[in-house]
Amino acid sequence: MSRALHRRQTRRHAKVFLPDDHPKLNLTPDEKRYFSQLFKQAADKNDTGSIVTGEEAFHLFMRSNLQQELLGDIWAKLDPDNRGFLTLEEFVKALRMIGRCQSQPGWEPDVSVAMQRKCPLISV
What single DSSP character describes residue 85? Predict the structure, then answer.
């Protein structure tokens, strides 16, 4: 087996690591499991498995049934430099913000809320 193929297969089966004590994310055990699963689904589609591109996120985020404009606002707050991708931490913040928007219609997306423990879980 080629070295490149081995690396790709290893990445594909690797677990996404979301530490319990991440100082910025303050994850609950349920969030850790669920967000890891969603990140793995989206990140596995790219070559590195360590980021989620806009295209990959778009399909997942649209399943939230929120307006595309609102999802675009959330993305813009987390990717202000317009890199076209989210890191794991940024992806988790987006999921928390989407969960809050789903549970509180009319809520204006705010990144500081994405840092709070026990945000409503996103439904996709």
Answer: E
Structure tokens at 23: 């100082």
Q: What is the mean pLDDT of residues 99-115?
A: 87
User: Higher model confidence: residue 7 or residue 66?
Assistant: 66
DSSP-assigned states of every residue in 108-122: PP-GGGGGSTTPPPP
The CATH number for 22-115, chosen from 3.20.20.70, 1.10.10.10, 1.10.238.10, 3.30.40.10, is 1.10.238.10
Structure tokens at 58: 């778009």
Q: Which amino acid is at 68?
A: Q
The whole-model pTM stands at 0.77
